[in-house]
Design brief:
about 180 residues, alpha/beta, Rossmann fold, 5-stranded parallel beta sheet, 6 helices, about 20% strand, globular
Length: about 180
């Protein structure tokens, strides 16, 4: 199984990275990890006067950055893991920017290579941790709108990270063995 882990965190050894790494440890096959803040990803510019552009007419974004390359890696993966730190009960800014553009290109194209692809979300909250469930709900809705088959959404808070590490590893093993019907 080919797994792509997309992290919306800059910290390669922080809590979000630890949670995503635990899930990746359980997965059999190749795992590629991408940290969104390390890429050149622009915000959607709502190109045309109507707020759309080639995303609507051609199912692709016209901006010249790392977006199309990352979308190609999403299309090539069997499983995509979206791991985001939780800021103000919401996705990180880099995760939101990437997903805003991803859902635009897929909204009008059935051949985008994302529809039905398995996805898992991890929302890692620091601080009090209370925002993790709301963030998970937001991420779940966005991934579903993009057309992913969201098979699990895992809210984590710093207070239960050590407990959830084994759950995340087990989730990776389950995903490797799971055969959709």
């Amino acid at each position: 199984m080919k797994t792509l882990v997309i992290l919306g965190s800059r910290n390669t050894s922080g809590q979000t990275a630890r949670a995503a790494s635990a899930l990746a440890e359980g997965v059999e096959g190749s795992v590629e990890t991408v940290f969104l803040p390390q890429l050149d990803l622009k915000r959607c510019e709502q190109c045309d006067d109507d707020g759309w552009g080639t995303c609507r007419s051609e199912g692709r974004c016209k901006l010249d950055d790392d977006f199309e390359g990352l979308v190609g890696r999403v299309r090539d993966a069997d499983l995509v893991v979206f791991a985001t730190p939780v800021y103000f009960s919401d996705l990180s800014e880099s995760m939101k920017a990437f997903l805003d553009r991803l859902r635009r290109i897929g909204r009008f194209s059935d051949a985008d290579g994302v529809r039905g692809k398995r996805a898992v979300g991890i929302c890692m909250a620091g601080g009090g941790g209370g925002g993790a469930p709301r963030c998970a709900s937001i991420l779940d809705a966005i991934l579903a709108k993009c057309g992913f088959d969201v098979v699990d959404m895992i809210p984590v808070r710093r207070q239960n990270l050590d407990l959830k590490i084994e759950l995340l590893r087990a989730t990776g093993r389950w995903l490797s063995a799971w055969q959709p019907s």
